[in-house]
Amino acid sequence: MPNKLRISNLILRRSETPPLRAGMKTALVFRPWEPLARGGSTIFIVLFLFLSGCITIYNPATERKETLLIDTQEEVSMGADMDVQMQKKLKVLNDPQMQYRLDYIGRKIGSASDRQDLSYHFRIVKDKDFNAFALPGGFIYVNSGLMEVATDDELACVLAHEVGHIAARHSVKKLQAGMGYQIILAIALGASNQQSMASAINIVFDLVNLGYSRKDELLADKLSVRYAKRAGFNPFGMVTFFEKLKKQSQEKGPNFNLVFLSSHPPIEERIKRVENEIVLNP
Questions:
Q1: CA-CA distance, 170 to 165, in Å (whole number)?
Q2: One domain, residues 138 and 274
Q3: What is the pTM of this model?
Q4: In the structure, what pLDDT confidence band is assigned to residue 219 with cuts at 50, 70 and 90?
Q5: Burial of residue 23, with CB atoms counted within 10 A of its CB: 0-12 exposed, 13-18 middle, 19 or more buried
């Protein structure tokens, strides 16, 4: 960060106040380093490491500059740990034929993503509900029930939606917003301890259970159209999949809840926006 060196030099180059000569009046002298010397050094260390660890990038997925504390290497490392934990919680299906189809379509979508600084990994969960979700670092889970009813175009659009969350770094931003100083310090030092990792995993699990914000979901829908087109699939598959998802939701009843079927925004709005995106960006 541009101010990092200036801040450290301000403190390191401080000098003692010269002694008062005879006849001089005492004056109030501001010494900005004194609160640090009186036990506030931890705050300064956290602030200094925070500034040191920050990176500013242009994110083509969001089309804006973003300041990040968690870089790609740290994100992938945390995501790998979360992937291990998630596989313990869920029944991951080992079906070579289904896995080949998922990997084949997934690789094409991943290569069309705006984010190429990590690899994408795909898992199949043995579950009949039409659901999918992404972890930080490029780990994507898809339910077997979704794969059984989805066409290749629909599956491609679902994967493109999840890849969109990863490309936009939605889970990473959620982690940064939900982490305290101790976790920030641990990550800045490159030594995330068990407590830090547990806190990060809990935040991501909340995302998996509750879904993303309205803004994040709409952006991921928009990116699903972009990436599906780039990869050679029909982006209208996102619309037809939403229709299938809507039908399943109606059959399951009002208490039915899926991450992919977020209540914010309503599925009707998402369908209209996807249709508009397809028309505006043919």
A1: 5
A2: yes
A3: 0.76
A4: very high
A5: exposed
Beta bridge partners of 57: 66
Same domain, 39 and 157: no
Is 240 exposed, middle or buried, given 0-12, 13-18 or 19+ CB atoms closer than 10 A?
A: middle
- Whether 30 and 78 share a structural domain: no
Between CA 91 and CA 260 the distance in angstroms is 19
- Half-sphere exposure (Cβ direction) of 280: Cα atoms closer than 13 Å: 9
Write out the two tokens for 98. Answer: 């289904």
45-63: burial string, b at 16+ Cβ within 10 Å, e else: eeebbbbebeeeeeeebbe
Dump pLDDT digits (tens) for 20-77.
Answer: 454 444 444 434 444 444 444 444 444 444 444 578 889 999 999 998 888 899 889 8
**What's the DSSP call for residue 112?**
H
User: What is the domain extent for residue 103?
Assistant: 70-280
Tell me the DSSP string of 76-95.
Answer: HHHHHHHHHHHHHHS-B---
Q: What is the pLDDT of residue 97?
A: 97
My answer on whether 252 and 209 are in the same domain is yes
